[in-house]
Design goal:
67% helix; 4-stranded antiparallel sheet; 10 helices; Arc Repressor Mutant, subunit A; 10% strand
């Protein structure tokens, strides 16, 4: 018989600490079936069965641990589990479950990612490329209104870098590579500076008053 030294609950599973054996993960059904809370011992044949369950439970444990850490795309999530040497078919089963439970949602990830990067001032080519490397073929069309918002956010954040015409041209080249239209870049830069000049003139008038 194998003595159960301690049982701890972890991410909806139970870790059994055993005498002279490696600890194993079991689920609530195993706890009830083998009366582990009351008996505190396992025979060798039951241990072999639980050892097989441990392989499955370990994959679930790693999957839940990943989801609790951060939000992943399906592509990222699968690769993380594959790196841990889990069974491919079992990973696919877990991914299907997680999609059904909305733990994984590439459409929502794309929407949130685009909003985040637009807010940080990044362009459509940049965003599309980043999403591609995250395993998502971008479906959203980043329209002119979104580009205007992104450019405005970018210039508000980075206009301090532009001290002369040469600096401005460098920024324009960089923004064009990100997928922004040239005319839109110029328009939004001018608009921001018109707003700044308006604020400055308003402040001056208030000072005079």
């Amino acid at each position: 018989m194998i003595k159960v030294l301690r049982i701890s609950e972890e991410l909806g599973l139970y870790r059994l600490f055993l005498e002279n054996k490696n600890d194993i993960l079991v689920n609530s059904d195993d706890i009830l079936k083998y009366q582990l809370l009351s008996k505190k011992v396992i025979n060798e044949s039951d241990y072999e069965v639980l050892l097989k369950h441990n392989t499955i439970n370990q994959c679930y444990y790693d999957a839940y641990k990943l989801i609790n850490q951060k939000w992943y795309t399906i592509h990222q999530f699968k690769n993380k589990l594959l790196l841990k040497k889990h069974d491919h078919e079992l990973i696919d089963i877990i991914i299907d479950e997680f999609i059904n439970n909305h733990y994984l949602d590439d459409d929502l990830y794309e929407k949130e990612y685009i909003e985040l990067k637009i807010g940080q001032g990044f362009g459509p080519f940049y965003i599309k490329n980043k999403l591609y490397h995250l395993g998502i073929m971008m479906k959203t069309d980043i329209d002119e209104m979104m580009q205007r918002e992104a450019l405005l956010n970018y210039f508000k954040r980075c206009s301090y870098k532009i001290k002369n015409e040469n600096d401005f041209n460098k920024e324009v080249i960089k923004l064009k590579k990100q997928g922004f239209y040239y005319d839109l870049i110029i328009e939004m830069y001018d608009m921001l500076h018109q707003e700044e000049e308006l604020c400055l003139s308003t402040n001056l008038r208030n000072t005079v008053k």
